[in-house]
Amino acid sequence: MTPPRADAWATVCEFTGSESLRRHMLAVEAAMRAYARRLGEDEDDWGNAGLLHDFDYERFPDRHPQAGEPILAERGWPAHIRRAVLSHADYTGTPRRSPMELALHACDDITGLVVAVALVRPDRDLRQADLRSIRKKWKNRAFAAGVDRDEVTAAAAAFGVPLDDHIQVVLAAMQGIAADLGLAGG
Question: Contact, 131 vs 164, CB < 8 A?
Answer without folding.
Answer: yes
